[in-house]
Design brief:
Blueprint: E1 3-13, E2 18-28, E3 32-36, H1 43-50, E4 57-63, E5 66-68, H2 71-75, E6 81-84, H3 97-107, H4 112-125, H5 141-153, E7 159-163, H6 171-183, E8 187-191, H7 195-201, E9 204-209, E10 212-215
Parallel strand pairs: 3-8, 3-9, 6-7, 7-8
Antiparallel strand pairs: 1-2, 1-4, 4-5, 9-10
Helix pairs in contact: 3-4, 3-5
The structure holds adenosine-5'-triphosphate and magnesium ion.
Family: Belongs to the ABC transporter superfamily.
Keywords: ATP-binding, Nucleotide-binding, Transport
Organism: Malaciobacter molluscorum LMG 25693
């Protein structure tokens, strides 16, 4: 199987305790998997490891069959990975919605008109065009989450790591996000507590325990 993400015997210890160990996982090309588990078991921490935001873990992370042994190596793949954090508060780089959604395209050198056009399209797709000129700090939690998602999807990463993407969304918005994520043919790891959301999106579900990931 062609894999986008491979974890081999990943273990992580924070200052106080061993969080988890023996995490093995293969996420195939365009495969969608969900990870569930109790509060505090380490789901967000595991996603941060895969997102290249933690380096004090044991075991091996591979992206597209390339062992990632250093930050420098991770950086070669960083633009292939779109990471939506559980808490998007500290995530935004610009004060206004449209500017933030355009930011990564502008950073890659795209001209302003083209980046603006693409940002408008993604806001329309996500049903949040009306938020275009709003101050991000003045948006609700759910609105911020979907703006953050727009900023990720616009760069068309090959892998999506989504940490509780629907935890603050109303029923209709959640439904729209399910349809959009279902229509995207990418490798995805989705962490969620929402059983119905997972059922509609991810055929493969794992439960994170201290001693490893169990397929359920
Ligand atoms: N920055 C941090 N400093 C110290 N401990 C942390 C930090 N971030 C997380 N932890 C601890 O690590 C453990 C795992 O946290 P993590 O956020 O990965 O859990 P989770 O499974 O995502 O939980 P939830 O379902 O509540 O989101 C928790 O005990 C948490 O208190
Ligand atoms: Mg979490």
């Amino acid at each position: 199987m062609s894999c986008s993400i491979t974890l081999k015997k990943i273990s992580y210890k924070n200052e106080n305790r061993q969080l988890f160990s023996n995490i093995d996982l293969n996420v195939g090309h365009q495969e969608k998997v969900a990870i569930i588990g109790a509060n505090g078991v380490g789901k967000s921490t595991l996603l941060k490891i895969i997102a290249g935001l933690k380096d004090s873990y044991e075991g091996e992370l591979q992206l597209f069959h390339n062992p990632i042994l250093s930050k420098k190596e991770y950086n070669k793949f960083r633009s292939d990975v779109g990471y939506l954090p559980q808490d998007v508060n500290d995530y935004f780089l610009c004060p206004i919605v449209i500017e933030d959604v355009m930011f990564n395209l502008r950073a890659k050198g795209m001209n302003k008109e083209e980046a603006y056009h693409k940002a408008i399209l993604i806001l329309e797709n996500l049903g949040i065009s009306h938020l275009k000129s709003r101050v991000i700090l003045e948006l609700s939690g759910g609105e911020q989450k979907i703006v953050a998602l727009a900023g990720i999807l616009i760069t068309q990463p090959k892998i999506l790591l989504l940490d509780e993407p629907t935890n603050a969304l109303d029923f209709n918005t959640e439904k729209r996000i399910i349809d959009i994520l279902n229509s995207i043919k990418k490798s995805m790891i989705i962490v969620s507590h929402h059983k119905s959301f997972i059922e509609k999106l991810a055929p493969t579900v794992y439960k994170l325990e201290k001693s490893g990931l169990e397929k359920i």
